[in-house]
Design a protein that fits this description.
The chain has about 100 residues and is mainly alpha-helical. It is about 65% helix and about 0% strand. The chain starts with a helix and ends with a helix.
């Protein structure tokens, strides 16, 4: 974690934000776009041997939430994650596949 702090602290100070993924250049909004985030993550895909696309990371986060909050109702999951009923069903399937 020390290395991350060394690299990102100057960017965070310059951008006046504690967010982890920030643009290098100052142009108003300091937050990265999805392509910008992918550019940060792409080199680590080969090192880790797993896909690090924003879509895959998002899916993994939602599936992990489903697995760690398995007592919540579908309505609570939908409200907490702002998902529609079709998405709730889709992520239930993915979570079930991961559990198996």
């Amino acid at each position: 974690m020390g290395r991350i702090h060394q690299v990102h602290h100057p960017i965070q100070a310059r951008q006046h934000s504690q967010d982890l993924f920030l643009k290098q250049r100052f142009d108003g909004d300091p937050h990265l776009t999805v392509p910008g985030l992918h550019k940060y993550l792409k080199p680590d895909e080969k090192l880790l041997g797993i896909p690090l696309t924003p879509t895959k990371l998002y899916q993994s986060m939602v599936v992990n939430y489903f697995l760690t909050h398995d007592k919540l109702s579908d309505q609570e999951l939908a409200a907490n994650l702002r998902l529609d009923p079709q998405s709730i069903a889709y992520y239930h399937q993915l979570a079930t596949a991961v559990k198996s």
